[in-house]
Specification:
Blueprint: E1 4-6, E2 13-15, H1 24-43, H2 49-56, H3 60-68, E3 72-74, E4 83-84, E5 91-92, H4 99-112, H5 115-128, E6 132-134
Antiparallel strand pairs: 1-2, 3-6, 4-5
Bound molecules: zinc ion (ZN) (2 copies).
Length: about 140
């Protein structure tokens, strides 16, 4: 008896052969999207998740799934990490604000930013600011 399942994406019945429970058609689509993301990150290392999503019309959820699968990697503390200043949108390499905004805001923040503030900042930057690159695992 073949293992028949419903595709998680489109709901069609297909012969399940292992891995993700999605049909061959949807799998091909996913591979195509992944190839686009991979090529884009190869040419634009450090691109942000939202940038990749917008340019390639691939959902952020999809990109996150690639990250979870270990097919893409968040760039660590290398030079090509790209964050955006939360106040003016300028590209910065660390933290939440560019130097200028940091200066302007530091007075206000000194009193408010405790432990809660900094962990919130971390979650925020993980969500939208940190760049990615393609992992050349199998090549
Ligand atoms: Zn399908
Ligand atoms: Zn700024």
């Amino acid at each position: 008896m073949p293992d028949v399942r419903n595709c998680r994406k489109c709901g069609k019945i297909f012969n399940y052969i292992g891995g993700m429970p999605i049909c061959p058609v949807c799998k091909d689509k996913e591979e195509e999207d992944f190839k686009k993301v991979k090529e884009y990150l190869y040419q634009n290392p450090g691109a942000t998740m939202s940038e990749v999503s917008q340019v390639l019309d691939v959902s952020v959820e999809r990109i996150k799934a690639y990250l979870k699968d270990g097919r893409l990697e968040i760039v660590g503390d290398e030079a090509n990490i790209i964050l955006e200043c939360e106040a003016c949108g300028k590209s910065i390499k660390t933290g939440r604000f560019c130097n200028e905004c940091q200066k302007n805001l530091s007075k206000e923040f000194r009193n408010v930013a405790g432990d809660m503030g900094s962990s919130f900042a971390q979650a925020e930057s993980t969500k939208k600011g940190i760049g990615m690159r393609y992992l050349n695992k199998n090549e």
